[in-house]
Structures are given as C-alpha cells and as structure tokens.
Amino acid sequence: MLKGRKILVNKRGSKSILKSILDGSILTREGVLDQLPYLLFLTFIATFYIANRYRAERIVRETEKLQSEIKELRAESITSASKLMYVSKQSEVARLVNKHNLGLKEAVVPPQRLTISEK
Predict the structure, then answer these.
(1) What is the mean pLDDT of residues 14-42?
(2) In the predicted structure, residue 105 carries a pLDDT above the cut 50
(3) Whole-angstrom Cα distance, residue 42 to residue 81?
(4) Per-residue exposure over 62-82, b if at least 16 CB sit within 10 Å of its own CB, e if not
(5) How far apart, in whole angstroms, are the C-alpha atoms of residue 23 and residue 29?
(6) pLDDT band, residue 3 (cuts 50/70/90)
(7) Integer angstrom CA distances of residue 5 from 2, 11, 56, 80, 90
C-alpha cells in the first residue's frame, strides 16, 4: 500500500494533523493520493449501502400500506356480499317490488319443465 514510503509526522502531533485536515492540505500528500482510488471505492460502497437501505425501508412501508389496504378491501367485499345476499332473498325482492310500485306480481303457480322428445 505505502510501498516503503515513510509517513511524515509533525512534532506537534495531532494538532497539525487536525489543521491539515481542516485546511485540505492532507489531500495533497502522496500517501493520500496513492489511496485515492480506494477512498473513492469506499465512498461509492457507502453511498450504495445508504441508498439500498432507503430503498428497502420504502419497500417495507409500501408493503405494510398495501397489506392494510387489502384488509380494508376484504372487509368491504364481505360486507357487500352480505348485503347482496340479503337483498336477493325472495321475500326482500317482493317487498322492494311492492315498495317501488313496479306492478309485478309474485308467481303462485310453480314453473313447469318443458321436455322436447327427439324422434
């Protein structure tokens, strides 16, 4: 990595390192320049990781929202089916026909089956 190069450390130690970081002169050193592709790669991986995490959280929120919506629609479907079964009962149909004065009468004679004989 450093290939035999010596790292120059100032006698003042951490204060000069902090100063070089803040003023940006640390980026011009040869050791840092040699490691620049690796630092860019790490930056790319970190960015990819963060983006992937946000995407996963968005998918989880969307899944939970859709599951909640499915529960609501299932309850609405059951309610609608129950109402339809109630309205389609013979006694309820007869009551609604009389209520709306449609002039229809309930059949008293049961229906007959017609059979056609083949010759």
Answers:
(1) 82
(2) yes
(3) 58
(4) eeeeeeeeeeeeeeeeeeeee
(5) 13
(6) low
(7) 6, 18, 43, 79, 97
Rounded Cα–Cα distance for residues 93 and 111 (Å): 18
Residues 116, 74: Cα–Cα separation, whole Å: 46
Identify residue 79 by its one-letter amino acid code.
T
Q: What is the dihedral of CA 49, 54, 56, 59, to 10 degrees?
A: -160
Q: How far is CA 24 from the centre of its chain?
A: 42
27, 61 Cβ separation under 8 angstroms = no
pTM assigned to the model: 0.52
Q: According to the model, what pLDDT value does residue 91 have?
A: 87
Q: What is the DSSP string of 45-88?
A: HHHHHHHHHHHHHHHHHHHHHHHHHHHHHHHHHHHHHHHHHHHT
Task: Please give the radius of gyration of the chain, using alpha carbons only, rounded to the nearest integer.
Answer: 40
